[in-house]
Design brief:
The protein has one domain. By secondary structure, the chain is mainly alpha-helical.
Length: 149
């Protein structure tokens, strides 16, 4: 398997989703495309790759067993191109999903796109940091609406 090609493809796919979220109008069809063609496809690539490597159907040179219980085991998993690509795809899928949720939540609360953009960028670059910033930023708007959803 050409892991470098898969790595480039998942990065491009995620970048397209993030560009759409940050710069394009939030039409329902666009949001659905980000969800299903962005997040969904990243999840499919992740699951297929992971199952393929674990089952041995997809070669991962240098990859041994999957040990998630120690630092050394995790280091060994990420020491291969396949491990890095699969792990990175995992991050991309979850961060894009969180970004989509932030965008929808912000729109529902009437938060300006100018405020959303840097929060979405922070989520793209450092997922949990951007998400944490959003949780703090959404609080006043949620209180004004009298609900937390």
């Amino acid at each position: 398997m050409d892991w470098a090609l898969v790595f480039k493809a998942v990065n491009l796919l995620a970048l397209l989703g993030w560009t759409a979220l940050i710069l394009l109008p939030r039409w329902p069809a666009l949001l659905s495309a980000v969800l299903y063609l962005g997040v969904g496809l990243l999840c499919l690539i992740y699951a297929t790759s992971l199952i393929g490597v674990v089952s041995g159907l997809i070669p991962n040179p240098g990859g041994g067993g999957m040990d998630f219980s120690t630092i050394a085991g995790i280091r060994a998993i990420f020491a291969t191109d396949g491990g890095v690509t699969i792990g990175w795809t995992h991050y991309l899928a979850f961060d894009l999903f969180v970004g989509l949720w932030i965008a929808r939540d912000a729109d529902a609360k009437g938060i300006s796109r100018l405020i959303q953009a840097p929060i979405l960028f922070a989520t793209l670059m450092a997922g949990p940091l951007g998400f944490g910033i959003w949780l703090l930023a959404r609080e006043p708007a949620a209180r004004r609406q009298g609900r937390f959803r």
